[in-house]
Write a structure and sequence with these properties.
Elements lengths: L3 H7 L1 H6 L5 H7 L4 H4 L3 H17 E3 L5 E3 L12 E2 L2 E5 L5 E7 L2 E8 L4 H10 L5
Antiparallel strand pairs: 1-2, 3-4, 4-5, 5-6
Helix pairs in contact: 1-5
């Protein structure tokens, strides 16, 4: 059998049309394609969702040239400071709060998205170091 992604790419129009129907329904409707018929359902099920995501990122023009779209994360309005704490977004995308108490820096994990209520709850959970 050829590479699963090659088979999927050659039949991408039908696969993309069936993307909303789920892996089992798509597999059953594509059994008329010999390469998919000889593929086990488990192999199809594992590769199908990733292929659909990949095709959402790849643009193919009329000449057949493929171009991968750049994915940029949404920019949120994260303040530089909050309730006396410094707010930083790390390279990993997580937001943390930092504050110095008597020469020692405390850090609090807020999460991936900025949520002032969650940040305030985290601040109130630590003992008063003031």
């Amino acid at each position: 059998m050829r590479n699963v992604m090659e088979v999927f790419y050659r039949n991408r129009e039908r696969l993309l049309a069936l993307s909303e129907s789920g892996a089992k329904a798509a597999y059953d409707q594509l059994l008329d394609i010999p390469e998919i018929a000889e593929m086990s359902f488990n192999t199809f099920k594992v590769h199908f969702p990733g292929f659909i995501v990949l095709m959402g990122l790849v643009r193919v023009d009329q000449s057949g040239k493929r171009e991968v779209a750049t994915v940029t994360p949404p920019i949120e309005d994260v303040p530089k400071s909050f309730e006396g704490w410094t707010v930083q977004t790390g390279k990993d995308g997580y937001i943390r709060l930092y504050k110095s108490f008597k020469g020692h820096v405390k850090s609090l994990y807020v999460g991936r998205g900025w949520n002032p209520e969650k940040a305030m709850a985290k601040i109130q959970q630590i003992p008063n170091e003031g």
